[in-house]
Each structure stands twice: as structure tokens, then as C-alpha cells.
Amino acid sequence: MTLRGIVTLLEANRPTVMTESGTEYLCYLRGKVRRVSGRILVGDQVELEPTEGREAIITRVLPRQLQLERPPVANLTGIFACFSLNHPTGNLELLDKRLVLAALSGIAVEIVVTKSDMADSVKELDEMVQLYRSIGYRVWVVSVRTGQGVEPWLSTEREGIWVLTGESGVGKSSLLHAVLPHAVIETGGLSKIDRGQQTTRWVRLLKIREFWLADTPGYTALETVVTRAEDIKSKFFEWDDARCRFPNCVHRGEPGCAVQQGLMDGTYASSRYRSYCLMVDQWVKRWGV
């Protein structure tokens, strides 16, 4: 009997697969399948044959639509870019990197501002949220401790696999525990130097209503190769209407640059421009033009 399912956990090279009926199997891979498919990832769609009890053998890995290496997830639809303004102090440059990399990879992205009840400045929180909403991002403001915003975030219609990503300690596992209180989810506090403690050891999928949510170790960014400043520029959507003197302007000091003028008159946020310059300097210099 051949069943079809999705890999929800990969621990010690043993995939856990949930079938379409909701039954979980601890699986082995046949040697031929391993040679043909290579490394299996959480999110892979597979065919399997049950053996004894709740164990099975994976006989086929179906073609992947999209694969990320960091975090290692297959067939994902979108990411939740988690960000805490304080405790730990969030890094807007890393947030902007996630947004740009998601767009370059063709992945949907939403921002989840966690620990809203712990923000040192309500004004700073509101300004940050309004900035990213004005650019066109969907931004959720949530607090696990008070429950603020959790239900609206959770009940929004979505499909497929969504990855929680963000620095360690930002509250990803606490957020999962709030929406799935019966799941075995490890959480931790902060280190003495205000850095998050990584509490998630493996990537795993958890079913939340109509979509899957991936809990991942606290990597700071998705990974892809970016070789041209124009590719990065195109993902700063607030600049789409800027009319520079030169059509190939990359906003790095060219004469007649409308973005530079917008920075001076307050039309564009200086924090976003700093993120853009850092990405161009880091990625384009690394990979070459």
C-alpha cells in the first residue's frame, strides 16, 4: 500500500512523515531513493509504504517547487519575518535583508513584530510598523504575554508552508507555544548580554488551521546569491516611483538621484537606505558584478 505525505521532522536522518489522512510514520529511505533524490528536507512531498506499527519506507521523493538551504525547507510558500523592538533589540538591517531575499526568491513575506508589550517606546514601535505598512508589507503586532494580535495573525487565510525566521530569542518558539499549547516546543530566555538563546534544534512543520508553520533554528537570514545592485534596488519597493535623471541609477551618489533627494526631504527612511547600502557593499562585492 502506497501512501502520500509530507516530511514534518528530520531528526538523526530519520524523517517523520504525516500522511494525507493525518497519520504520522517514522521513516527510512530506500538506498535507490537516497541516491536519486539526495538529501531529504522538511517540507518534501513523498510516497511511502508502511511496514510495522508506525514505521514506513519512503519509496519516492516528489519534485520540489522551491528549496532553501538555510533554513533547510522544501516547497515553502512564505516566511514570517519575526522582529522584536526590544528584549532583544532587533536589527532593522537583518530584517530588511530577509525581506529582500524573500522577494528575490519569489517567496511571500509578512512581518511579525513580537513582544509588543515589552517595547520601550510605543512611538518608536508605531513608527516602525507604519513605515513597513506604507511600503506595502503586511505587518502583525503581537504579544504572547497579553495575547495582542495573535488571533488576527493566526486566522488570516493562508496556504502551504510558512517559515518563522528571525534572530534567536525573538520569540518564535513562544509564539508557536501560544498557538499550539499542546505541542512540545522548547523556549528559552535571554543570555546575560541580551542575545537570544537558540532553543530550536531542528526544523519541523506544525499544522495550524489550513497552513503549515515551520519552526526553525534562529538563523539571521535566508541565503541566495546576489550579484547586481539593480536586483537589490528593485526590492526596495518604496523607490519604484522615484524618477532619477539616469534610468540605471543605483542611488549611490549619481547626479540627479531622486532617492537621494527623497532622503533629504524625509520622503524615504534613512534606515532603509542604510540597509540597502550595506547589502550592495556586502553582496555585490562578495559575488562580483
The share of residues in extended strands comes to 25-35%
Looking at CATH, the homologous superfamily of the largest domain is P-loop containing nucleotide triphosphate hydrolases
Sheet with most strands: 6 strands, mixed
The number of helical runs is 8
Spatial order of strands in the largest sheet? 10-9-8-11-13-12
The coarse overall form would be globular
Measured between the Cα atoms of the first and last residue, the distance is 53 Å
So what's the CATH class of the largest domain? Answer: Alpha Beta
Radius of gyration: 21 Å
> What are the segments in which pLDDT stays under 50 over at least 5 consecutive residues?
185-200
**Helix-strand category:** alpha/beta
At the fold tier of CATH, the topology name of the largest domain is Rossmann fold
Query: What is the count of structural domains?
Result: 3
- The succession of helices and strands, N to C, reads EEEHEEEEEHEHEHEHEEHHH
CATH architecture of the largest domain: 3-Layer(aba) Sandwich
Average residue-wise pLDDT? 85
Estimated helix fraction: 25-40%
Number of beta-strand segments: 13
